[in-house]
Design a protein that fits this description.
Blueprint (H helix, E strand, L loop, with lengths): L1 H9 L4 E2 L2 E3 L4 E3 L4 E2 H40 L19 H7 L1
Antiparallel strand pairs: 1-4, 2-3
Length: about 100
Amino acid sequence: MGLCVLFIVQNQQAETVLGINLGLVAWRFSAPMQVAPLLLILLGSGIVLGLGWGFSRTAQAQRRVRELERLQAFGSPKPVETPPVSTEQGEDNEEEDDDWG
């Protein structure tokens, strides 16, 4: 941040020609723009976008926490049972087959 302020102070009168080239078409602003206001605009827009993204992630996490708390308070559904896995190969366990099949 300090370097940005120092750059703006040192280059108050610097100007640049702005344009965009998309390959097929290109645009250029008719008048040059000063670098200091351009930097402040870019810095401000970066801060706003970063805060917006951060707030949306926080809101998402808060909604998820409320959802999990609600499930815990009202009782969550029973977990799905999975069939037992045999660690020995080639051995038939008829008791397990009867339970699941």
